[in-house]
Fold this sequence. Notes:
Elements: H1 33-74, E1 80-84, H2 92-102, H3 112-120, E2 125-133, E3 137-144, E4 149-151, E5 155-157, E6 163-165, E7 177-179, H4 185-200, E8 206-211, E9 217-221, E10 226-230, H5 234-249, E11 256-260, E12 266-271, E13 278-282
Parallel strand pairs: 1-3, 4-7, 7-8, 10-11
Antiparallel strand pairs: 2-3, 4-5, 5-6, 8-9, 9-10, 11-12, 12-13
Amino acid sequence: MTGSRITKKLPPKPSKKTRGAVSTTKRKPVAGEPGRVRRWLANTAKWLVLPCACIWLVAQVDWLALRAEVQGVANKPLANISIKGEFEFLAKERIQSIVSESLNGNFVDLNLVEIKQKVEADPWVYDVRLQRVWPDGLVITVIEQKPIARWGNSGFINQYGALIHVDNNESLENLPLLFGDEHLSNEIAKTYLEMARLLASRGLNLKGVQVDSKRSWELVLDNSMLLVLGQDEVTVKLQNFLLVYEKHLAGVKHKIKRVDLRYESGLAVEWYEDTESTKIVSATH
Length: 285
């Protein structure tokens, strides 16, 4: 036994090719497996198709019912018409009559543009606004003209200086009266407003304006005083008059019949006591 070698047998090392490697061997299909998959898909499809079909059917029924309801409402005639606005010179019944004559359709087919044009054709109407109110209503808001002065016997100047013709302006008898050529109406209205402002600053009110064919201006104040301005620089002449008025004439204004402002450096005053006499007053003193 002496000198003999004992060798320990170790387990074999794993091959490098198989260490940590993943097998790529294909699994053999199990018999009958494709058929089971197809049957599962078919059953699943049945359960999906049935709810979807039900949902589609309900949606169709709801849509048809909604469409029928909308059509029923759309074919309704107007049942509620409301007319709003402040009516001072225009009768509300007049608007009702115009609208009634224009109602030739149901709620949807109603021609709002046509109704608006017919209402605005009345000279006392400045603007009109129409609005449908579901399901069978119509709201009409009327904005009336705002006259600031009469024009002759058959018209007035509105708040924007436009000349509006009417059949009769007797209802405006408390407003100032303007006379002149119609093609000068805008200029006359603008100048009138400026003159009225200047006179009001001195406690005087403008009652009437007349501009003749030669564009010569005459003003009538509320105390019947007549101011003759002539043709040129009429606003400047009125300002000069007010300077003299404050210094010399305010205390005797009830005695003044007529003031002629056509002089270059003064004015002539005609008094009620003696219509033959006049007094020249310098506008610069």
